[in-house]
Design a protein that fits this description.
alpha/beta, Rossmann fold, about 45% helix
Amino acid sequence: MIKKKKVLVVDDSKLILKMITDELDTRGFEVVTVPDGVQALKKTKESKPDIIILDLILPGLSGEQVCKEIRRDEGSCDIPVIMLTAKNTDADKIIGRVIGADCYIPKPFKMDDLLKEITRLIK
């Protein structure tokens, strides 16, 4: 039996979580969702996702703090991170890369663009 690829989606918008979950479910992914930064770190350790889709603006810990912590932790440092956020300036994109994001997708986004990056980053 082929193991499903696990995606952790971190966003405080229930609509975004549902939209991404519904799409990834139909494509055979296992999806885990959390609405804040603290739970994101906890779920990253517990569920060992194959990829993380991370908003920057989150309650608790910001996406920036979450990404930095993921990159510092030996158990999660190699997990690809896609920043999916409304922060869309050139400076935000540079910060995303500096803190360790593998990809930066501004909201509003096209699901096809997200799927293309997921496919590219999951090995």
